[in-house]
Amino acid sequence: MARTVLVTGGNRGIGLAIAQAFAKQGDRVAVTHRGSGVPDDLFGVQCDITDAAAVDAAFGTVEAELGPVEVLVANAGITEDTLLLRMSEEQFTKVIDTNLTGAYRLAKRAASKMLRAKWGRMIFISSVVGLYGSPGQVNYAASKAGLVGVARSITRELGSRNITANVVAPGYVETDMTAALSDDRKADYQKLIPAGRFATPDEIAGAVTWLAGDAAGYVSGAVIPVDGGLGMGH
Ligand code: NDP
Fold this sequence. Notes:
The protein has 234 residues and is an alpha/beta fold. The protein has 8 helices and 7 strands; from the N terminus they run E-H-E-E-H-E-H-E-H-H-E-H-H-H-E.
């Protein structure tokens, strides 16, 4: 059955691969962007997830054009890396406001319609570093660990209404975000990854479409690592 899916940050990177995977299986897919536009085969809505009014407006547009959001993929995220002693409070709160508070804004807006429909899927894109930790990423790791608490609490609040909330925790993925890393750092990371390579965005999308599908209807509050074995046990 075709569903209405909203993927934040679906204009590029992992979000785009997720959006295209849903579109390929026949779902109605909307993606957010911040002015860059989106590929022709996707429905784009402009939205900055740090702005609750913009989130509300984006949902309103998607509801009017494609119907209520049944599958929310909270994917948009940023990094602002530096070591703890150099990290300003602004650098900390900016990353939290986007990656964690942004996800809260999206989940809250999506929940009311999912409750009415008595069906919903929320998928939060976290990161292996949320539970593994990473030097220079106190802000980012905190925001990504926080998503686990968000998904598990939503599961306890809304689980009886046929609404699931799960976390996908990618390892390193070939996107603009990791293109910023030096070749030396990439080589260092690759040595730590049992798979010996970074993931492609499509490899993350597969876990997300599975969580949204009927086969995963009894999976909720889970953290699914897609990291080539990097974070085992974390
Ligand atoms: P990119 O940097 O390639 O893309 C980030 C996306 O997030 C863009 O679409 C961007 O929009 C959007 N975005 C950022 N801030 C906001 C905001 N305030 N409001 C709305 N949209 C925003 O990232 P990736 O594709 O690599 O990452 C996607 C997700 O996966 C992120 O949450 C990231 O933390 C996570 N992740 C990535 C990993 C990796 O190795 N790449 C590993 C683990 C997790 P715009 O185009 O307008 O800037």
